[in-house]
Amino acid sequence: MLAAGAGRRFGGQKLLQEFHGRAVIYYALRAALDAPLDPVYLVLGAESESVHAALGALRASPKLRVLLNKQWALGRASSLQLALRQLPAEVPGAVVLLGDMPLMTSALIARVAKEFEKTQKLCFPLYRGEIGRPVALPRALFAEFFRLEGDESGRAILRAYENEAIKLSLSSEEEITQFDLDTPTDWEALQRVLKP
Per-residue pLDDT averaged across 27-43, rounded? Predict the structure, then answer.
């Protein structure tokens, strides 16, 4: 789970925004820890101590491994690469999650992970015809992600292999999982549309 950025487009501290009594990052991480993923690597960077404190009881999960990206200011690519390097050689792939998606569910993460286990292929949900989250990356693609720089997210790589990927359809109820908190406008929409 990538959670190292400063949230510049948001104006800072977006992962610490309180949403129904908990920080945004808490909900995203809880979904990952409740899913059949083990271990779960959480990459922190900007405001790492505050973000770590906001995890509350989740910090005690035996599945959780917290990584500090000291080069977080270089961009998202460095955080993803740090996490991928931690994986044991026998692990066939990784499920990539974002810390600013508080409506992600363990059920959707499990769907993606289980489909990857069966096929060992690139796998992701389709959201309005586009590549959604989370994304399961096969190890065969890791080398390409290690070549990314700065804030490159790897979307161009995913598009290059999209025809070979396993694409999961989302039900109307699942579409809300794709809410991505990037700007103050996104935050206003989240507060306006969702009830506790």
Answer: 97
